[in-house]
């Protein structure tokens, strides 16, 4: 596990393009499209291979996970990436770690809730608004219409209270 560096830009762009159709994604805290490849983040490595990439942004007393991608699923990269960004949030005294996923992403929802995230908001038909800015977002995934954004958060201050 290590922080992203400028030398990682080609790798991060390749990972984001493979997962998101490009490095431009919607950020909840900003309500706008951002180039995630230019954000701070972490890379998880398994040997010399990238196992996962996470990008984040800090705003208004929270850290938002903008993207998280397991390049090598099943090796613990997702948890390690969340641990790393959670440590950043705690170090900065940030109260909340936030992220957004879509209603079709059931695998990720299980993962985030098992990690400790709580579902705090449903943004009905939000993907229609995002699709107007980024038309390449598919209409469905695995037979599930992609319509809504689900906002999750983890209270970082709870970490300090447990210690």
Oligomer: single chain
Average residue pLDDT:
89
Low-confidence regions: none
Task: Report how far apart the termini are.
Answer: 23 Å
- Characterize the overall form: globular
What is the succession of H and E elements? EHEEEEEHEHEHEEEH
Biggest sheet strand line-up: 1-4-5-6-7-11-8
Helix content: 25-40%
Q: Structural class, judged by helices and strands?
A: alpha+beta
Overview of this structure, please?
31% of the residues lie in helices and 37% in strands. The chain has five helices and eleven strands. The chain has helices spanning 9-20, 77-91, 106-115, 126-133, 157-162, and strands spanning 2-3, 24-27, 32-35, 41-46, 49-59, 62-70, 96-102, 118-123, 140-141, 144-145, 149-155. 33% of the residues are buried.
What key attributes describe this structure?
alpha+beta, 163 residues
Which helices and strands appear, and what pairs or packs with what?
Elements: E1 2-3, H1 9-20, E2 24-27, E3 32-35, E4 41-46, E5 49-59, E6 62-70, H2 77-91, E7 96-102, H3 106-115, E8 118-123, H4 126-133, E9 140-141, E10 144-145, E11 149-155, H5 157-162
Parallel strand pairs: 6-7
Antiparallel strand pairs: 1-4, 2-3, 4-5, 5-6, 7-11, 8-11, 9-10
